[in-house]
Write a structure and sequence with these properties.
Layout lengths: L23 H17 L4 E9 L3 E10 L2 E6 L2 E5 L4 E5 L4 E5 L20 E7 L4 E7 L6 E8 L6 E8 L2 E12 L18 E4 L5
Parallel strand pairs: 6-12
Antiparallel strand pairs: 1-2, 1-11, 2-3, 3-4, 4-5, 5-6, 7-8, 8-9, 9-10, 10-11
Length: 206
């Protein structure tokens, strides 16, 4: 549940693409592609998130991205992924588990939120809350069915996401978004700090 929402975060810095010669769908896709790079590009990004899954599960934390690297921090779990190794810390159990970066073992929800941009149709609209980018899954697509991303009209910063999986909606509130100037040091696991924790290696042996 830690990362799925982040596939849809942020939006464009300006609206030069919103001309009269391209369709609403083309405009929306251009906006999405631009902001996807703002989040996952080589410049890096960070933001705070609050996830509410139909009132049953509530999670909040901070996440950082830079290319293939990532890091997140929540009240119980912490993770440092330097692109080759992914360390997950459980503060309650006092454990450190090492995974391959793409391992499905580290997050049981990840497979449900796999994302391919070409699996969706796109549109955008104005609202009192901000600009709304709609992503609707094409027929026969499994997993995510619909996404509504709301961005601030003035700053273009992400404000919230609504994600539909099967029959229920998940809400993600976003704050403190920053794109760029993310140091590689952010993604280095501070091993000395957790030297007294139990260690488990779940990497695939080669």
């Amino acid at each position: 549940m830690k990362k799925f929402a982040l596939l849809f975060l942020s939006l464009i810095l300006s609206f030069p693409v919103l001309g009269k010669n391209i369709t609403n769908s083309e405009q929306a896709r251009k906006l999405f592609d631009h902001t996807y790079n703002m989040v996952f590009g080589s410049q890096g990004s960070t933001l705070h998130y609050y996830v509410n899954i139909i009132g049953i599960m509530k999670v909040e934390g901070t996440i950082w991205y830079k290319g293939k690297k990532s890091r997140f921090a929540e009240s119980r779990y912490l993770s440092w992924n330097d692109g080759t190794k992914d360390y997950w810390v459980d503060l309650k159990k006092k454990t450190v588990t090492l995974y391959d970066p793409d391992s499905p073992k580290k997050d049981k929800y990840a497979s449900k939120f796999k994302f391919n941009a070409d699996d969706f149709t796109y549109s955008w609209e104005n609202s009192n809350e901000g600009y709304v980018i709609n992503l609707k899954a094409r027929k026969s697509m499994k997993g995510i069915k619909h996404v509504k991303a709301i961005i601030d009209k003035k700053t273009r910063a992400p404000k919230s996401l609504k994600i539909k999986l099967l029959w229920f909606w998940t809400t993600v509130e976003i704050s403190h978004f920053k794109s760029g100037n993310i140091s590689d040091e952010v993604f280095k696991f501070p091993a000395a700090k957790y030297k007294d924790y139990s260690f488990f290696d779940e990497r695939v042996k080669k």
